[in-house]
């Protein structure tokens, strides 16, 4: 299955955009800094490296999310990932279900569930061992859950708009 790199790239900038809004001092930024034990002086400095590495890590998250939100990728995995040598049943399946559940809403739903049932527990476990507050946990988990919800919606919705040209190829 072809990977839609434009959708992945577009989704990978969402964490920066959401972070700018979510962690703004007038939203959760001031509370987050207090709960994290940070000061404005500590936050100052070379941020270029932080932003560059954040985009690279966001690309990994977006790349992974397509496997969560585009169910047809699982069908390709079942045949070993080689669609050019796939059997007739795979092509029949893709002809019948190739565009099923391809919408922003569907991608958002699955990404939200991933955020709530995977990201939130991971952040909460780390925060408990770091002795961070529940405010800190909820601010970070809320940010990541909302962020990947939007990312998954973009990835799944973009597939719906772009379509799969490979579905008709055998």
TrEMBL record:
Top-level lineage group: Bacteria
Keywords: Membrane, Transmembrane, Transmembrane helix
Residue stretches spanning the membrane: 6-24, 45-65, 109-129, 141-161
Matches recorded under Pfam families: DUF1761
Protein known as: DUF1761 domain-containing protein
Species of the source: Chryseobacterium cheonjiense
């Amino acid at each position: 299955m072809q990977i839609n790199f434009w959708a992945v790239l577009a989704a990978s900038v969402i964490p920066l955009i959401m972070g700018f809004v979510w962690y703004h001092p007038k939203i959760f930024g001031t509370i987050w800094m207090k709960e994290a034990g940070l000061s404005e002086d500590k936050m100052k400095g070379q941020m270029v490296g932080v932003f560059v590495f954040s985009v690279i890590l966001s690309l990994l998250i977006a790349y992974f999310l397509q496997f969560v939100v585009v169910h047809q990728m699982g069908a390709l995995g079942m045949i070993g990932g080689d669609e050019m040598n796939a059997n007739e049943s795979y092509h029949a399946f893709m002809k019948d279900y190739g565009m099923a559940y391809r919408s922003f809403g569907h991608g958002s739903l699955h990404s939200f569930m991933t955020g709530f049932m995977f990201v939130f527990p991971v952040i909460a476990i780390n925060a408990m061992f770091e002795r961070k507050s529940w405010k800190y946990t909820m601010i970070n988990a809320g940010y990541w859950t909302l962020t990947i919800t939007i990312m998954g919606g973009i990835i799944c919705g973009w597939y719906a708009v772009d379509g799969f040209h490979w579905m008709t190829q055998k």
